[in-house]
Amino acid sequence: MAHGSAPPGGAAVAGRLLRLLAALALAMVALLVTLLTVLDGPTAWRQLNGRVALNTLRQGALTRSYRVYRPAALPSRPGLVVVLHGADGSGQQVERQSGFDAQADRLGWIAVYPDGVEDGWEPFGCCHHAGADDVAFIAQVVDGLERSDGVDPGRVYVTGISRGGMMAYRLACELSSRVAAIAPIEGNMADSAGSAGAVPCRPDRPVSVLAIHGSDDLEIPIDGGRSKLNLEEVSYAPLTDVIADWRRLDACGTGDSVTDSGPSTTTEWRCEDASVVETLVIHGGGHTWPGAPLANLPWSPGGMVDASGVVADFFAAHPRGAPA
Question: Which of 104, 176, 187, 323 is the most buried (most CB within 10 A)?
Answer without folding.
Answer: 187
